[in-house]
Design a protein that fits this description.
By secondary structure, this protein is α/β, with parallel strands linked by helices. It is built from 13 helices and 17 strands. It has two domains: 195 residues, FAD/NAD(P)-binding domain (3-Layer(bba) Sandwich), CATH 3.50.50.60; 147 residues, D-Amino Acid Oxidase, Chain A, domain 2 (2-Layer Sandwich). Helix 3 runs parallel beside helix 9 and helix 4 packs across helix 9. It is globular. InterPro entries: FAD-dep_OxRdtase, FAD/NAD-bd_sf. This is FAD-dependent oxidoreductase domain-containing protein 1. Required for the assembly of the mitochondrial membrane respiratory chain NADH dehydrogenase (Complex I). Involved in mid-late stages of complex I assembly.
Length: 462
Amino acid sequence: MIVSSLFRASRQSTAISTFARYNHEQKNPMIKTWNIMTKSNTRFSYPENTDIVIIGGGIIGAATAYWLKRRAGDGLSVVVIEKDFSYKQAQRHLQHGTLSQHFTLPENLFLSQFSAFFLRNIREHLGEDINVEYCPTGSLVLASNDYAQKLEETSSLLKEHGSPNELLSPKEINKKFPWINTADIKLGCMGVESEGTFNGWELHKGFVKKSKELGALYINAEVVGFDLEQQRDVLMEGVTPGAFERIMRVRYMTEENEEYGIKFAGCILTAGSDSSEIAKFAKVGTGDGMLMVPLPVEKRKHEVYSLEGNNTEIGLNTPMIMDTTGLWLQRKGLGKDFLGGYLPSLDQNDNLVDTEQYLKTTFLSSLMHRIPSCNNAQVQSHSSLYYDCTTYDNSGILGPHPYHNNLYIAAGFGQLGCQHAPGLGRALTELIIDSQFNTIDLTRLGFDRLLTDQPMIECNAY
């Protein structure tokens, strides 16, 4: 009897000790379930599984996390892996957000129209405390004789798709903006609504904050590889039977140099200019067949100048100016000063351009020609901003990879990434949840165009 009692006491003590150990290590399934239900687990643990993993927590990745959680709620787990929680580069180029309707590709026009709608109703989406400093300035596109017909066609396209605008003769331009030199201008096109400037950095922070509130988990880490699983029962054209490999886990390194892996159902690649290298971990660009084609996205430098010393009052009604030479300008604050830059050609690599020479021979010469009152203007400061650029055709790539159908790509959108992020995030969410585009059909922006050699050239990518 005594032995039996001691045995039961020993077992009870062991059980209590074991339970306590499991409770401490968070391995007991009942404790884990209780912590999930009550969200009372204060100790951070890296998840081993998720429904969707987003690589890159920039503005497109954060927007996607927001839309996924808004639509699916707790029914879909979302993990965002971002290597730089300070977002140093993002802060610099997102502050100068612009919203324009002047596009030659309908996809870009529709995305901008939705962005305008989103910004007008932003507090319904991201909360009452957000302020993106949206300023509806309008925009003015100037065309020389060589581009006047193209501008007329663009104007008709905009009107056809619900973006009102007016064509202006050189005399009409001078009447509205007498400080613009129209000697070599044949035609101008003025947008009359849903165009202006905003603070893209505040928009990005709003997406991050709201997506976290809705349950998205952000991890500060750098992706170092994918684990692939051979699936012998999958047949795909151009792939040897039994040789198909599916990506099923992403591996990442934390700031503490600890490596973890997370298994996923779907992966969204929104890592900007790093996307091409990360795609190689899935053999995109290094494999056979469809995997021979790389993701043609790389970092490109754009110079933005802050100018002071304009001799003419330009007025609060001054629009964003997109010049026929590639020059772009926008009013800085409430004064008569400008922010400006120069749109590079598709085959120009600004990474190789001498900054000082570029300033004197390209930017300032075009500026003083178009706005003579700026002949004494001084460059107060300049920033070298870096964007992800699609070297194939300068248009972003969005959609599933043709081989890895659980790898979704959104990269290479360059300067348009900021203003189009609300619509791009929503589009990716539709592909994940609905398996199709429901609002804006962005099929033509898919990776497939690289395989079929069908470039999407946007002539007004300011």
